[in-house]
Design goal:
The structure is a single chain. It is globular, with a radius of gyration of 22 Å. By secondary structure, the protein is of the alpha+beta class. Strand 7 (163-165) and strand 8 form a beta hairpin. The protein contains 15 helices and 10 strands. The protein has a 6-stranded mixed sheet with strand order 4-5-3-2-1-10. Strands 6-9 form a two-stranded antiparallel ribbon.
Amino acid sequence: MTIPKVQVWPTFQATHITKSSSDQYDIPCPYILSKKVLGTGSYSHVYECKNSVSGTHYAAKRYSKKLVYGMESMLQSEFQVLKAVLNGHPNILLMIDYFETSEYFYLVTDLANGGELFERITGAPEGKLSVAETRSVLSTLLSALVHLHGNNVVHRDIKAENILFASRTRDSLMLLADFGHAKILAHGATASDCSGTLSYLAPEVIARSGHSFPVDMWAVGVLTYFMLSGYMPFDCDSDEETKQLIATADYLFEPEEYWQEILDEAKDFMARCFQVDPSKRLTAADALEHPFLSGPTISPVPSLASFQKLRDAVWQLHKNQRSSTNMTLLERIDSPSSSSSRLSLEPLQQRLLGERCYSPEQVTAFSTPVVSAGVSRQHSLNNIHTQQMKLTPSLAARNGKASFVM
């Protein structure tokens, strides 16, 4: 069977996924992959990769075609979700590119070298986070959820393992990742499959009674409990017992010594997330206004309005300076058919944009260290900030720094 020639993937069916001859993949791959695996999933491996033209480092999630055969809708859904949040949010791990070879599909994203929130919680001196640290994580996460829910995207797998950091520094940029279970829901629509991680699942997911955006807020409650105590609110020896506790929101603030110094506002916040009736649960927007998070100790969340102003200013710069023959990536971001989410100054000819190509080269170590090219997001933002300073110094001083609080 011959795979049809298409320029943009993923538009495919199960019958299209088959081993093909190498002459169908005649485009050189601009990405070089490290042989070291950064992470492993059920159907994929994650590698650090580098764009051989720009030198910028990213993460490449590689899916085996053999393993996802017959489950293309799952992979298709993840890509559609990533496209739905195309214009991005500073705290969402963004899609950079995607392409396929004869054996694999590749999803290229921001590179997060700072590890998981889970590691920061379990590795803390007391095995838990302080109230101030918990507030900081929640304010950032909820801002990202407001953006997702506003774009009709429900994440469905909010957990400490899916919250990453761009670097190991204490004030590193936090990134919400892994949209493998995410779903786009039309207004009033619900999902009925049982998808996600059991300890974080909402009652309506387990009951298969139809679920929507409130499931993310139940998971936020679980995450809050975990950050403040170091253990899970619903976690028994058997899955059935865990499901029973979740079904009735049967949780306790025990042992008492773990919770005696925790603010009543924090407990109320979790109680409002742990509502069995999803219609009574806090929304992401309401949660940001809850007394537990709205106190004076909360660091300001990057403003989406100022983020948009900076983006529009850079877009205007490129609109004024572009040639008639070269279309910049920022133009593609404003295009309805755009398949890239990166606010970057890289020209299109440096990107595959979903085409088929030869398998990427794999190396033991990169000749260009990540620090010299910059972690992808910060590298791009620095470029944008530099150009913005040339365009309008006053606007850059007002918006550029505040929009991307690290």
